[in-house]
Amino acid sequence: MGLREARIMPIMFGSHMGIWTCRDRSIIWLIAEDPIAIMIRNREISDEFRNFFNVLWEHADKK
Fold first, then answer.
1. Residue 51 belongs to some domain of the structure
2. Which domain holds residue 24?
3. pLDDT tens column, 1-34
4. Contact indicator for 18, 24 with CB cutoff of 8 Å
């Protein structure tokens, strides 16, 4: 496989919200009638979001 790998979460985990992290920044966004995004600048919070992602990644089905 190339430089990418995809995994699929069960449909019950569908969401209109997303989280993006880079270094000490986390951006949480919600796609809704009134879209909103929040940026948090905190290394510990970004690290925790990455840890949460890793747990989800381990439990997701390989594509």
1. yes
2. 15-62
3. 577 888 887 776 678 899 999 999 999 999 999 9
4. no
